[in-house]
Amino acid sequence: MQDLNPLRLLLGAPGNVLSASGIVLTVIGLLHLPVWFWDGGGWVGQVSWRKPILFGVSTGVTLISIGWLASKLHQGFADRCVAWVVSVCLVLEVALITIQQWRGTASHFNQTTVLNAAIDHAMFALILIAFVGIVYFTARSFSTLRLPTDYGLAVRAGMLFLVVSCCIGFAISAYGYNRVASGLSPEIVGDRGVTKFPHGIAIHALQILPAVVFGARMLAIETAKRKFLVLSLILSFALQIIFASYQTISGLGRYEITTVAGVGLSLVSFGTPVLAIVFVMIYRQPFRPN
Fold it and tell me: How far is the CA of 80 from the CAs of 7, 58, 65, in angstroms?
């Protein structure tokens, strides 16, 4: 029998709420591409059309992915509430970033006026609230998922990497505010270390890992090999975060690999998935459905 509870109808299915918000943000981000082509300007810097484009698309696909996860859970009332909170917070955050770009002023670490400081603080509060919701859905992903085991492994690892990336983001925000207070660039560590490097390494593992599972299934790779491939990529992402953190803390550019530790970390972190793919493709066996 159809559930006609007005409150449930108002809140909607959590997966639908998250996915719809994600689609809106992705479309808005993509619509800024022709604006950038027309208006010009650099792709880097505090004021750049890169921000509404990348934040819109990146946040959008993340919401869509969490929506897909939410649709695979045995849904409860709390799921609906948290889905709405996460969606509203992230849509508002990207909206503020976009507004600041259209105003021609920096969105992050901008304390130049009362309005800019208020927007900056609001964005931090919004992402902090959304982060709590992300942690909630990460914890929920370890309950019963209506997904095959290989997809389940990929989704849970992707959510954990999203949480780690957010934590790194909060750390570089705290570092950036201290730098700004001293009149220094908030985005540089030492001579050339890039604070955003470790933050961005695995933030989209939630999309990449399930996509790898999907591709492996299309190639008729057996279940055990699919799981091995996902585990190899999980290890690779973890090592890449360590590598990126090492480079940044050492004051080195993203791929300015000049130390023995840097060379070793880069070879292992980026070589692991390559070796795993080669192994899986060489030792493929006939596909047997679960």
Answer: 10, 22, 16
CA gap 61, 204 in Å, rounded:
9
Q: Are residues 99 and 82 in the same domain?
A: yes
Task: State the pTM of this model.
Answer: 0.88
CB 158 within 8 A of CB 218: no
- Note the pLDDT tens digit of each residue in 30-44: 999 999 888 877 777
Domain count of the chain? 2
Looking at the fold, whether 82 and 151 belong to one and the same domain comes out as no
User: Do 156 and 43 belong together in one domain?
Assistant: no
- In sequence order, which ranges of 40-148 are alpha helices (DSSP H)? 50-71, 77-103, 114-141
- Alpha helices by DSSP H, listed for the chain, are 6-11, 14-39, 50-71, 77-103, 114-141, 149-181, 196-201, 205-218, 223-249, 260-282
